[in-house]
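FAQ: What does a multi-protein file look like?

Like this. Sequence, then tokens, then the next protein.
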Amino acid sequence: MRKSISLILIASLITASCGWRDSRVNPRNWFGNSRDVPVEVVDAEANPLIPRQRRGALAREERPDASVPIASVIELNVEPTTSGAIVHATGIAERQGAFQARLVPDNPELEPTDGVLSFSFRVLYPNQATPVGSEFSRTIHEAYSLTLDELARIRVIRVVAAGNARETRRR
């Protein structure tokens, strides 16, 4: 009887330790709050005359990526899941009507550079002119899922927009 009571007491204390606000054991504290960081503005684009490798003889021609970086990133959150984490980013588009938002990893193999995994927040705009509208009507939400194996090598997650970037660090 004493052993079962002591085991229950120890198990409850260990479980309660995960609830501390700044505990590293608590999965909700794996990444801190995001912060605004400066971004380099690069005008150089990839050479469109160099063909990309095809998948096979019967593969279709891939359409060129017409997406552009969103105007700014205003929020970045990383929420843990049982299989890894979900990166949530919120951005403000230049005008209304932006669609097909994506968080595109800078490295397609998801290999972090010096522990930093960087994403580009990209959207498409309609061909016809659309009004600018309010900030609320231009707000875009997007998410990207990461596995536990991918998270093991990542210390910082960064989302880059046209005008700014936000990053969050692992605690």
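And here is the next protein:
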Amino acid sequence: MRVLELDEQVYLEGVFYPKEVELRGKISRGLVEEISRLKKEPEWMTRHRLRALEYFEKAPMPKWMTGVWSIDLDEISSYYVKPAHAKVEKWEDLPEEIRRIYEKLNLPETYAKYLAGLTTVLDSESVYTAMKDLLKDLGVVMVPMEEAVRKYPDLVKQYFGRVFPYTDHKFAALHHALWSGGVFVYVPRNVKIPYPVEAFFFIGSELEGQFEHTVVVTDVNSEITFIEGCSAPRLKTFSFHDGMVELYAHEGSKLSFVTVQNWSRDIVNFNNKRGIAEKNSVIEWIEGSIGSKITITYPSTILKGEYAKTNSTVVGIANGPFIKDTGSKIVHAAPYTSSRVVSKSISAKRGVNIYRGMVQVNKGARGSKSFVQCESLILDEESKSYTYPIIHAYENDADIAHEATTARISEDQLFYLKSRGLSEREALSLMILGFIRDVFPRLPFEYVSMLTKVIQLEFSEMGGVG
């Protein structure tokens, strides 16, 4: 995936394309029922949406979410936007104005070289889904979520809302009531996919809500890497993203979920992510949070089976008067489970980074181990970084370690690199990349290159620090 130069603005401006449906108005039963009708959903999904709406209307606004009180949901004018063009499986069948968006992001080339499957969601609906013959021959299911609801209802019912129910909090309920778009992936027993699959989400309109729902299931002894990419144009006002990811790793399987989030500065990004790991399985989260006005996301794992493991690596960059409220939550619910959480945050130009994490060892989860590492890099006097760790251990032999460090880039360090022939801009980029270097080995090569370029562009206009 190519990163656009600054004059192209990664986010693209003036995204115009034909729309078949654009639902406007306040959140209501009528709105929810109309979304369900347009999607031709079975009755059980309509009932699910309406139960979630009822809970949303009663649930209080979460006060612990930084900046959430600034979101006025009544300002959002579009809760469902359907492109006029139906989903296709060939690039050449996409309308030119839509194809141009993805070509600028280099998605066709990325799919051809590095991916086993790709689906793209524009606003509220999938417009392109393709799988290479390898996945089809192995019996892998990878379809837009609305298609899965119709084609694989029994399979979807097993997992949809099971990992992250609408009763979790107000915005989870809102998501379940209004969800649209997203992907359903099922990897059969004993199938190990050697190449990643990707879903790419694009918000093309202002004052829009995007509520995609992604479910990835790895059956016994299977393996997959799923990559989630996000982008949006620069907008005059704002748009709201309230997505959800549910992972379910069955016994002996491995599921890696990678997010490269580079929303424009006008997006309020709330992302609900949770996984369940059965016996001897592994769930891995890798989160690169770069763009957006406000981001609130805590990739979480419930270690349900003995010897289950999880690794969570989160990088949050707040470059400007923006907020990154990130972290990870781990529940050790079975014996001999282990977790590792690494959080890296970079704050500049009045940026605020918040780590909000939890490790809980339940009664009966004997022999559990957890390691949490929080590292913050602050580039100027006006920026801030906060850490709020929570630890609950209900077994005496729980082995839990937490360490946190905060550092600044000093003029001495910059001077040393500049004396070796680097410009101040090059030196700063090098030091920032060095700070997050241990994230790179977990990423596919193409995405290391992309993340490196994004960070270099992000800090290309930085001046002196300290």
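Q: Is there any per-entry metadata?
A: Some entries carry free-text notes. For the entry above: The chain has a mean pLDDT of 83.
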